[in-house]
Write a sequence for this structure.
């Protein structure tokens, strides 16, 4: 955290599973227990599909899939000895064009406003 002229820079908020449950409660007015179950089911479904190497596609949000990472020879950072790292699958998320555009929307309008203010 940088301190400049007596001001502190705010740390970005991290959205947690509990925050998602609260949002489901607000939007659906379901009881907490049902809201927690709904959020948990979504995460479990994504996890189970990835374990089976299935692709998950959520229109307007993005897609999840697994990628194969090949085996390699690595080094133990403590001892420096060579260690064989076996091949494995890693989860991969690819955001949709709509999500990318939505995230960058504020930046493009802020840049346009700043350019107009300079003129």
């Amino acid at each position: 955290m940088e301190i400049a002229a007596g001001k502190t820079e705010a740390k970005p908020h991290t959205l947690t599973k509990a925050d998602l449950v609260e949002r489901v409660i607000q939007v659906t007015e379901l009881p907490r227990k049902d809201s927690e179950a709904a959020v948990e089911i979504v995460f479990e479904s994504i996890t189970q599909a990835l374990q089976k190497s299935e692709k998950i596609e959520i229109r307007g949000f993005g897609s999840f899939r697994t990628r194969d990472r090949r085996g390699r020879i690595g080094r133990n950072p403590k001892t420096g000895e060579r260690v064989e790292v076996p091949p494995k699958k890693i989860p991969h998320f690819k955001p949709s064009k709509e999500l990318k555009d939505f995230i960058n929307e504020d930046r493009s309008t802020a840049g346009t406003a700043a350019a107009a203010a300079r003129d």
